[in-house]
Amino acid sequence: MTAFAPDSLVLNRKLPLWYQVSQSLRASILGRTPDASLRLPTEEQLAAHYGVSVLTMRQALKELEEEGLISRHRRRGTFIEPGARRSTPRRLLGSIDAIVAQQSGERTTVLGHGPEPVPGELAEYFPDVAEVVTYRRLRSDGESDEPTNWAENAVRPEFAAGIDPADLERWPMTKVLRDVVGVRISRITDTVEARLADPETAELLRVPLLSPILHYTGVTYAEDGRVVDVARIRYRGDRFSFTVTVEAH
Question: How far apart (Å, rounded) are the C-alpha atoms in residues 70 and 83?
Fold first, then answer.
């Protein structure tokens, strides 16, 4: 069994230090390897690792204890609760079928849909249209019903006309566009970055405001070069990790 090793953290002085440390340690706990020890380093060791005071570290640990992720025992130390769920890995693979497969297996609720002006941050993808049709969906774990991510898809109007929102509760958008609408997809460009949860994301995913999330942007192109769909998905940072495999030939 390997020793538990918390991730490093660059502190933002505009946010409470204890909160940043607790969220970083929370992500490390939920993303730990299967063979990692359940015993955490001492308060002093963790404080030195994060570059904070022991008092700040104690406040961060108290937050995790109240959440049920750790238990603290006088003279014995601090331990990860065995039931603390490890994050579910996601693999970014190179085929459309693989992307469809990785989006499946979760319960999906359509929160709403309808036309709206092209958002400013998406204008570069839709230079020739004034409106897109936006679909908002919440995905939950099929077993625990815990929210895992929520998605906004901005779809070019001529393709959105062929989408039945009920299909989006059964299948991923990529599958609906390809197999139902009949779009000939040439490629999808993926970008994943770390962000902090805004109020809407925090409420939908049931996480603290400003907690770390993974923000995914997927741009889907048709064979004629037009952007068909721009997906923006916010993943709970404590539930997912992304693995990219590059094959050497």
Answer: 10
- CA gap 230, 214 in Å, rounded: 16
Q: Is the dihedral of CA 111, 90, 184, 181 positive or negative?
A: negative
Burial class (CB in 10 A: 0-12, 13-18, 19+), 205: buried
Question: Average pLDDT, stretch 209-217?
Answer: 87
pTM of the model: 0.62
What is the amino acid identity at position 148? T
- Dist. CA 118–CA 131, nearest whole Å: 5
What's the whole-number mean pLDDT along residues 111-138?
96
**Token digits for 24?**
């970083």
Q: Which long-range contacts does 196-205 make (Cβ < 8 Å, 24+ apart)?
A: 197/234, 201/150, 201/234, 204/138, 204/147, 204/150, 204/234, 205/147, 205/148, 205/149, 205/150, 205/234, 205/236
Q: Are strands 227-236 and 147-155 parallel, antiparallel or unpaired?
A: antiparallel
